[in-house]
Recover the amino acids of this structure.
């Protein structure tokens, strides 16, 4: 720093006027305080979100929910009632010797599948879909067939999982 700059800085300090460096430092300090306040607000929001997520996780792990299990089961049965009633009616027509349409039956089966999938039964893969073989979710259709992990195979019969647990593995075959 030159002598003139030093003298000027000393004179400003004597008069109570801050130097340019001090003013810049003060501006930087104000800017950093603003940034710190924003970070604190973001952190507070993140903590609230984390707290909410932890509470929700505890609810799910304990099996409690805003929706009682009996209510869920009743809702499931109510959703199943209409297509089941129609299937029973189709069955009575068959027993009476009447012809029924396979298309009508498949529509009802699709409705049933949609109801149970809505309730949480999740298909692992769809029939005809190519997937990578994984022993956790699939098994060979034929007992005398073996596949390597990661080998491309074709799903012949859907697999299902419920709440992350495998209920039925997909049955797969070689890709043609």
């Amino acid at each position: 720093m030159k002598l003139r700059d030093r003298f000027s800085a000393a004179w400003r300090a004597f008069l109570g006027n801050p130097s340019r460096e001090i003013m810049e430092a003060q501006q930087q300090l104000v800017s950093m305080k603003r940034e710190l306040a924003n970070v604190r607000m973001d952190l507070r929001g993140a903590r609230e979100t984390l707290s909410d997520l932890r509470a929700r996780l505890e609810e799910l792990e304990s099996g409690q929910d805003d929706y009682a299990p009996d209510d869920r089961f009743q809702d499931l049965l109510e959703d199943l009632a209409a297509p089941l009633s129609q299937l029973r009616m189709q069955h009575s027509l068959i027993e009476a010797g009447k012809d029924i349409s396979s298309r009508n039956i498949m529509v009802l089966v699709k409705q049933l599948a949609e109801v149970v999938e809505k309730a949480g039964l999740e298909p692992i893969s769809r029939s005809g879909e190519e997937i990578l073989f994984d022993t956790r979710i699939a098994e060979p259709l034929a007992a005398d067939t073996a596949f390597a992990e990661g080998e491309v195979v074709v799903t012949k019969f859907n697999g299902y999982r419920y709440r992350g647990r495998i209920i039925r593995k997909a049955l797969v075959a070689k890709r043609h």
Summary: Helices lie at 3-15, 20-62, 69-95, 102-118. The first helix runs from residue 3 to 15. Residues 70 and 96 are 37 Å apart (CA to CA).
